[in-house]
Amino acid sequence: xxxxxxxxxxxxxxxxxxxxxxxxxxxRRLINDTMGGMLSRKAGEHxxxxxxxxxxxxxxxxxxxxxxxxxxxxxxxxxxxxxxxLGPPVVxxxxxxxxxxxxxxxxxxxxxxxxxxxxxxTNATLIDAxxxxxxxxxxxxxxxxxxxxxxxxxxxxxxxxxxxxxALAGVNHLRAAGAKVQINVTxxxxxxxxxxxxxxxxxxxxxxxxxxxxxxxxxxxxxxxPARQLAPPxxxxxxxxxxxxxxxxxMELRATCGPQVYRVAARxxxxxxxxxxxxxxxxxxxxxxxGDVFPCGYLPVKCGSVREADFExxxxxxxxxxxLRDDHALKGVCGNCDxxxxxxxxxxxxxxxxxxxxxxxxxxxxx
Length: 367
What we know:
It is globular, with a radius of gyration of 19 Å.
């Protein structure tokens, strides 16, 4: 079935590599195995997983590209060319750690030839002055850097000892090189009381934006969710904080995987710009390192593979994408909610809780 009226693609997240120099406690890359249990790892052990698959790739050092079956340079150029006909979207070089891929400068140049804006999502711990200069020269619209605490003790609990200092050093190098920086914060119980301090830290580093990611219990996040995931009242306080500080933040504030912020804003008569909460499969898509296509990086429901079909075809014909674009398909409280057209609930969180991506988002603070 074709869907020629498929909406424009706004953002394409490309998991450029599964390799990473860190092993963060809340990384989405560790996904439930096919028996419904969690694959585990020892603290500090570096484990890489094929995209949403149960088989770990272990060993000392990084596995070679051939083991990870990453898309080749030519394959991803084909994806970019196909995506350019759908928007054009912003292409986010994500990972893993995308700077571990050698061809990123060539691919950013190719994206610019297609008039595709590009962005980079990095942990910044590998960035020195020389690499920062190359990143700035690549003309990324923004470079997002993950900071999960306003101090080393909080950040390093999730991302490993010493990485708070390394990440801030990377941010300093990026700003010195003239790159535009965005701070990404995965909000948990450990840092929910640090939002003011994190915002101050972002302003000190002259960040253009701070995006708050509400933890989705997939991957390693499922292991830490009971202890660290926000309870609905805390979740609501974070969304209210975002709305409270829209005017005085001095930078863009956004919630990611917190679509109920649009309900909070609507009740206040406040416009947040984009007009809708969950964009999963509606104006956003995710291409994994091996070419599998998903509605977003947190929803492990495969919609196709760019090694089997053109990305544009998948975007227009996937039954999963079609269902996600239909507000009438939502179930439970989300289906009956007066705000479903501007919120939609987090489809990844619904799937993590029930196995059904159209089910109600039970973490919603308004349920």
